[in-house]
Amino acid sequence: MTHTGLWGVLAILGLAVVTVVTRNFFLFPEREVKIPDWLQRGLKVAPLAALAAVVVPEVIMTRGALIATWQDARLPAVAAATLYYVWRPGVLGPLLAGLAVFLPLRGWWGW
Amino acid sequence: MSLLRTLLHDSHFRRGARDMVDFGPGIAAWGLVTGVAMAKSGLPLPLAVLMSLTVYAGSAQLASLPLLASGAPLWVIWGAAFCVNLRFVIFSAQWRTYLGHLPRGRRLAIGYLLADLNLVAFQRAWPRGQREPGQVRYIVGGIAVIWLTWQVPFLLGILLSEAIPTEWGLGFAGTLAMLGLTYGLMHDRSTWTAAVVAGAAAVAAYALPLKLNIVVAIAAAVAAGLMIEQAERASEKLRGGA
User: Fold this and answer.
1) Which are the contacts of A92, defined by CB distance < 8 A and separation ≥ 6?
2) Which residue has the higher pLDDT, A44 or B196?
């Protein structure tokens, strides 16, 4: 490990600056940055798109390739979470339903 | 102190906090897993704690771990984190509408603490997309809850990293939590389209380094939405003309 002492602290404080700069990118200027109306409307779906972009590969890919087997605990877990969501929308319910399927399949059958 | 007490009794602050409590288990699982990953990477404990308290951006922290471990040049580490955080640049354009009127210091302090889920919850709670009274207090309530439900499990994860085997795949809990959130935002044709396009684009562009596939997916979803809007307008014009 090379990240000892001052170098590590400097690297991490720099990362904190990156957080500040990216999250405040359009908040920083004193005068409002005019973003065209059509772009504002389009950007409304950006958070949803970011979520979908994280979730879908996590479910159907392993190490950069599409999974080639049905014997993967993630697929039945997502099916269970989805069914639960259709029955009762929310975050916690589907999460627990999915885990109830995922953990035994992964732990005992090694899917 | 009295400011804090006023806030705790404020209805908007409380609603912002309560809405975020729904996401709590997912955030906590994700924080725990990130803490475990951080400890297992061999990052010394004080640095891991400093990182969580100051950087406060889970995916950028995870992405920079291997770079820190291999002693990569600082500009590479910072540049990688910037790429992973590019989505926040896009989100900050949205936040400008609701926070732009605040003095710069307060604006930046709030902006620094705004996670992805703050915007997700905010859009559900204030669907009209314009400035309304109470929004800033709502945002601050959500920030307070996310900060705690992230930091506490994260620190626990660092401490418990020996006891939690990675084979359990507990990281998938975070994915399942995000799944429910994603479904919650899909309520009409344009949001369904955005989710499908973004998911497909993220898989197709997965080979890109530094999680840039997420930025590609956002761009694809936004572009697809705008194109459909154009097409609908054109077809309406045609129908109107006939």
Assistant:
1) B22, B25, B26, B180
2) B196
Q: Are residues B89 and B135 in the same domain?
A: yes
What is the pLDDT at residue B192? 93
CB contact under 8 A, B90 and A46: yes
Query: Burial, B54: exposed, middle or buried (Cβ in 10 Å; 0-12, 13-18, 19+)?
Result: middle
Here the ipTM equals 0.81
The number of domains in chain B is 2
Q: CB B51 to CB A15 under 8 A?
A: yes
User: Which residue among A8, A49, A51 sits closest to B178, beta carbon to beta carbon?
Assistant: A51
All residues of chain A having their beta carbon less than 8 Å from the beta carbon of residue B172 are 58, 74, 77, 98-99, 102
Q: In Å, how far is A70's CA from the nearest CA of chain B?
A: 17
Residue B105 and residue B21 share a domain: yes
A82 CB neighbours in chain B (<8 A) are 179, 183
In this prediction, residue B73 carries a pLDDT of 84
Under an 8 A CB cutoff, do B22 and A90 touch? yes
Inter-chain touch A89–B168, beta carbons under 8 Å? no
Q: Which residues of chain B have pLDDT under 70?
A: 1, 166-167, 170-171, 241-242
At what angle are helices B135-160 and B104-112 packed, to 10 degrees?
Answer: 40
Asked if residue A59 belongs to a domain, the reply is: no
Last residue of a domain, one of B140, B170, B185: B185
Altogether, the residues listed in chain B come to a count of: 242
For A64, the 3-state DSSP assignment is coil
- The boundaries of the domain holding residue B23 are 2-185
Higher-pLDDT residue of A52 and A69 is A52
Share of chain A above pLDDT 70, in %: 96
Has residue A3 got a pLDDT over 60? no
Task: Give the DSSP H/E element, type plus range, for residue A76.
Answer: helix A74-87
Contact B176 A99 (CB under 8 A): yes
pTM: 0.77
Q: Are residues B95 and B173 in the same domain?
A: yes
Residue A7 lies in a domain: yes
